[in-house]
Amino acid sequence: MIPGTDIALYDHSWQWHLQHAVRDANELAKVLELDLPPVTTDFPVLVPLPYLHRIEKGNPFDPLLLQVLARPEENLVITGYTTDPVEETAQHGLIHKYRGRVLLVTTGTCAINCRYCFRRHFPYSEFQLTRNDRQHVLAYIENDPTIREVILSGGDPLIMPNRQLRELVQQLSELPQLTHLRIHTRLPIVIPQRVDDELVSWIANTRFQVTVVIHANHANELDDEVGAAMSRLRENNVTLLNQSVLLERVNNNCDALCNLSWRLSELGVLPYYLHLLDKVAGAANFDVTASDAKDLIKQMTDQMPGYLVPKLVKEVPGEPAKHEL
Ligand SMILES: *Cc1c(COP(=O)(O)O)cnc(C)c1O
Ligand code: SF4
């Protein structure tokens, strides 16, 4: 399934893994020894090998497989599920919705295509924060001294090469009002090799307090390679948090959520948010009701240390903060 041995899998660079990812539903089924109906969808399959490697062969219900495999139900039109559920538009790549922090949409690209993502309706966007946008962003921040934190988001900001990231963060660090930098990324889960020496070195050399918010939905995503990537970040004083999406059949039971929290904690990562699904067209088969979600959090609270219970939130267009349930 993987060229060479397991050792070779971890010898390659993250760029190599991006190039050699599986990009075809039929190939995915073949590699995982699954007999599945062919599907056509406008959101392509994209699974890099380190992630693929954690999926159990021959198990059509594997919780990681379900997140990446295109299914016929995606093409059903269901009332209430739209192409733009969050109603968010970035101006020059900048979203300033909440006080004290701004979010930068650095790129439209990701290293994996999660079937439940709102990105599925603009997967081809070649969006990249331009030099021009950067000047606008810097001027915007300078104009509002209440902004202290910049959040790099996307897509996945770690898709950007280290040199570009270092340059962007360098420019931001010239604004004395900014003290905190946050990076929202799934790349360290999908391709742990992304946390390479260069990345760690530019993070170690910025004056910012850095927080990396990873995105894992299931304990099986957190293998020892991910653990090693987390250690490299922690050794450089990065605060590590996780956000998950509550997903039918993937993690909508107390055992799955509790195991995820315990495993994150072993890796030095605290659970931060558990998101209710954004009602995006094509993802209805993943949806969990708010009342079931609240029950799950109640069950977790009854058996877990408080610091391992994530905040259950949902995106409500127009509210001044994430809506806590
Ligand atoms: C989630 C989000 C943030 C960060 O919110 P926190 O509560 O600080 O984690 C910032 N801006 C936007 C637009 C967001 O959606
Ligand atoms: S990594 Fe995040 S932004 Fe990218 S497809 Fe998955 S859920 Fe969406």
Mean pLDDT: 93
CATH architecture of the largest domain: Alpha-Beta Barrel
Q: Based on Cα principal axes, name the global outline.
A: globular
**What is the CATH superfamily label of the largest domain?**
Aldolase class I
Fraction of residues in helices? 25-40%
Biggest sheet layout: 9 strands, mixed
The helix-and-strand class reads: alpha/beta
Regarding CATH, which class of the largest domain? Alpha Beta
Please report the total strand number as a whole number: 9
Radius of gyration, in Å, reads 19 Å
What small molecules are bound in this structure? Answer: pyridoxal-5'-phosphate, iron/sulfur cluster
Cα end-to-end separation: 43 Å
Strand portion: 5-15%
Characterise the protein shown here.
This protein has 325 residues and is an alpha/beta fold. The protein folds into 2 domains: 6-75, no CATH class; 94-320, Alpha-Beta Barrel (TIM Barrel). It has helices at residues 6-11, 14-19, 25-31, 49-52, 65-68, 131-142, 162-173, 187-190, 197-204, 224-234, 254-266, 290-303; strands at residues 94-95, 101-105, 149-153, 180-185, 209-215, 239-245, 270-275, 311-314, 323-324. Helix 12 links the parallel strand 7 and strand 8. Residues 110, 112-114, 117, 119, 156, 186, 215 line the site of iron/sulfur cluster.
